[in-house]
Amino acid sequence: AFNLQLSKTLPKHRLLPILREYGEYPAKHRATIWRTLLELSGDRASYTTLLNRGSHPCVAAYEQRFAGLDRRTVRNLKRTVSCLAHWCPAFGLIDYLPSFVLPFARQQPTDALALFETVATVLMNQCQHWFEYAPLEPFNYLAMVENVLADCEPRLMAFYRRNGVAPRTYAVPLMESAFVRCCSGGTDGDNQWLTLWDHLLSNEPCFAVFLVAAYSSLHRGTLLKATTDGGSTTVERIFFHQSGAFDVRRLVGRAHDLMERCTAAAHPRHYFKPFTPLNMPSALPTVNDRWKPSSCDSAASNAVDCFSPAGESEELSAHSTASPTPSGEAANASEKGSSHRTYASFGNFPHKLTEVRRTETGTLRAEQRRLEGKIIELEKLEHGLRERLVNDLVRQEHEQRVKAVERNLEEAIAREEQRVEMQRKLLLLHRKQLRERENELSLDVANAKLINDATVRERELDALLNKFARERQREETDLLFAEEDIKLKELELLGRYRTVPDAAQVPRPLDQRYQVALEQLAVQKLKLYDEIDRTYSSLGMPASANEYAYRTVSELRKVASVAAYGSERPRGKMEERPRERPPGLIGSDSSSQVK
């Protein structure tokens, strides 16, 4: 229902002005427009029936043949060609069919059903005369191309005839590749190919004949410049070894120009049936009858020569009459009770020859499988023999290596025994040297220990001497401080003697007070000197160890003795003697002189 509504919304008479104006259909809506132009039905049930028949044997080696393509494209190509081979047995015998389907598979990578129906519809209409003599060349179709060139390009046709250039040279390469050779490579080439097929699908089925003729017409200048000897070589170079680098719109324009210029007698429209959709009501006759040209006598002589003889034509037409192929019957059976529409059968091919070729191909495939089985068995046998031979060689080589290893080991053992003997002798010598060295080290250790002990004792003695020296220095310092204290006490006593009054507050004579003070001071000095002597005695130092201290002590004793002696004199004599200087002053002066 949707396709019917879409066909009513986008009829051809509304699409053709768009194509004439812009030269191509919008890329965004191209798939929908093609579906409308080809009247695709989307019959998934019939397509599933073809898929369920499995992969056709003709697609078995496509992975190796198309190894450079991505896996999805190869998978779609295998599925489509397999369904085409099940739909029409002749397609399984066409070698160039994968090359024809490949551009469509690249442009429709996701919709397998639309891809199959598109290719099948194109084969039924635009390519309806390509397989009349399959697997031979389409002689009638090539004759139509010659008729157009003879009518519109007589000079070019005369060049072809003069140089013996057959139509297969300049027409078949374009047909087998679905006109990919007319386009350049890359993304631009894909766009050019899509534009070309926009025009092919929008025009009547015979438009492809004019495209083939237009390609030769565009190369007319290059071809006519070729010499007589190199004419065929130039044509092969143009049509086999290079793709067209010109604008596709020029090719389409030239094709329309040839289509308008072609006379009615040479026009291929008389030999083509009108467009027939792939899906037809089952009550109507399917497209199985081979269409017989009615105006063959009015065609050019070269086209008449290319037709098959009358007897062969009748035989081929007898085998091409209206009975559905087995694939068509299977499709009809799958739709029985559920729908009244099914895929039309393609019958414009030599049924008897195709059946013979299918039988031969099946026999050859069976023979190939048998030979492959034998080859596998022979390969296994060869592999076993090779493995056995390899094992024997390996065993022999292993034995030789084992013997060589044994010899090497014996030699190594002998060398090792000699080395061990030498090592034993060296070990004994080394032990002797070690004992001698041990004795030397023992003596060195003992001497070092003695030296170390002596050093330690020497250090201890030095430390003790240093200690004694520090103590002696400290004692000398203490003596000096004691002398200073004595002098200070002497001065203090003298001062006290001068300042202290009499106990009875009775004024005493000055000489008496002075004499008493001297006596007390002398007694204290004697006690101090005795204490100093005892200190020297306790330290074990002689009295003459410190000459200064000894002289001071002697002077102080002398002063103390004088003071004591003076106290025993009678008072009268004391008063008669002249007043002398106190001993404390003498001691202080002497001490100052010593300093």
Automatic annotation (TrEMBL):
Renumbered to this chain, the signal peptide range is: none
| GO process terms (BP) | cilium assembly
The cellular component terms of Gene Ontology attached to this UniProt record, alphabetical and capped at eight, are: ciliary basal body
Taxonomy, superkingdom = Eukaryota
User: Keywords for this entry?
Assistant: Coiled coil, Repeat, WD repeat
Q: Where is the composition biased (Basic and acidic residues)?
A: 568-582
Q: Which residues form a coiled coil?
A: 395-426
Region named Disordered: 310-346, 565-595
Is this entry keyworded Repeat?
yes
Q: What is this protein called?
A: Rab-GAP TBC domain-containing protein
Record the organism: Anopheles melas
